[in-house]
Amino acid sequence: MKSYDWYIFDVLGTSKLSLFELFPKNSMELCIISSIEELIDKVKEVVQFESGVFIAIKKGIAVEWDHNYLPETEEDEGLQHSFADLEIRLFDYSFFEIYGNDRKVKKRILSHFERKISR
């Protein structure tokens, strides 16, 4: 997968660590995780997600967010930022939705689930 910054919004759930520790906000009140490996490590610390929005935007793109209208889990279908390549929304403790425009990523994700189902 390409090099992305992951922007994290609307995270609620249960974990042994504080969600504020796992997903800290910077001085601009944004949580940005700079690698997929770091994101995976943090997500593994969460027992269950009640909600959450994870948006992947290619590194090096200057991203501006409207702080009066930040991405939310309960939003209409589709990507919530024009620069986003991938968006994952977690909700109701066991469901998720994935939005994106890259067919290669879609095929890769679907193939992972197909392998799990066929076992």
Structural description of this entry:
This protein is an alpha+beta fold and 119 residues long. 24% of the residues lie in helices and 34% in strands. It is built from three helices and five strands. It has helices spanning 19-22, 36-44, 103-118; strands at 4-15, 31-33, 46-58, 86-91, 95-100. A five-stranded antiparallel β-sheet has the order 2-1-3-4-5. A hairpin with a 3-residue loop joins β4 (86-91) and β5 (95-100). The longest helix is centred in the last third of the chain and has 16 residues, at 103-118.
Q: Total helix count? A: 3
Low-confidence stretches: none
Main structural class: alpha+beta
> H/E element string?
EHEHEEEH
| Portion in beta strands | 25-35%
Average pLDDT confidence is 89
Helicity level: 10-25%
Number of strands: 5
Biggest β-sheet: strands ordered side by side in the sheet: 2-1-3-4-5
Largest beta-sheet characterization: 5 strands, antiparallel
Alpha carbon gap, first and last residue: 25 Å
Give Rg in angstroms.
14 Å
Anisotropy-based shape: globular
